[in-house]
Amino acid sequence: AESRRHFDDLCAMLRAAGVKYEINPRLVRGLDYYSRTVFEWVTDKLGAQSAVSAGGRYDGLVQTLGGQPTPAAGFAIGLERLVELLTQQGDSVPSFSPQLYIAVLGEIAATPALQLAERLRDAGLRVECDGVGGGLKSQLKRADRSGADLALLLGENEQARAVVTVKNLRQESAQAEIPQSEIVEYAKRKLGE
Questions:
Q1: Alpha helix (H) residue ranges in 55-182
Q2: Helix (H, G, I), strand (E, B) or coil at 64
Q3: Mind listing the pLDDT tens digit for each residue in 7-29?
Q4: Is the pTM of this model over 0.70?
Q5: Which residues are CB-neighbours of 34 under 8 A, at least 6 positions away?
Q6: Is 46 helix (H, G, I), strand (E, B) or coil?
Q7: Which of 26, 39, 135, 176 is most buried as measured by Cβ atoms within 10 A of its Cβ?
Q8: CB 158 within 8 A of CB 165
């Protein structure tokens, strides 16, 4: 029952973020330490070499090796395959540093944060959404290390009021609360300054 809830939550987050997926009950990863979800990202653009990335969760691995219980997920990417896909599309390699970093404060904000990240990405902005969790201070440290210009804080309080708290990471300025419906335009304006 717990695994089913976890899987249903994962599928709900993927749908909320607009990620297309297919459930394949026959998908098997070659190592037996995987738990819960496994995945493959495949393409029909590379002939027989269709898998571009694959991985999954392995929450029990660290404990099996003698460590403390540690939730974990991992994946591998076929870099040559990824480069070939980019080449086929004529894309140049984008900057890896995000412009915006979304700090997720509490479980209630997890799915809305993913939806917000996708809205911002659809508008052409580079966004990293915190996936580690923890307190605001630790998330802001990660936001600063990411190189992002702005941190967007989204928690239960902001969600209830349909706002996003914006903190400038590169300049001293007061935090601002921006309506969620206006955050794309606000972020573009602030990043263009």
A1: 61-64, 79-89, 110-122, 136-146, 156-161
A2: helix
A3: 899 899 899 888 889 998 888 77
A4: no
A5: 56, 57, 58
A6: coil
A7: 39
A8: yes
Q: Are 179 and 162 in contact (CB under 8 A)?
A: yes
CB 155 within 8 A of CB 139: no
Instruction: Pull the structure tokens for residue 166.
Output: 């914006």
Antiparallel, parallel or unpaired: β 176-179 and 73-77: unpaired
Cβ–Cβ < 8 Å for 117, 129: yes
The structure tokens listed for 20 are: 């297309």
Per the CB < 8 A criterion, the answer to whether 33 and 74 are in contact is no
Amino acid identity, position 98: P
Helix, strand, or coil (residue 71): coil
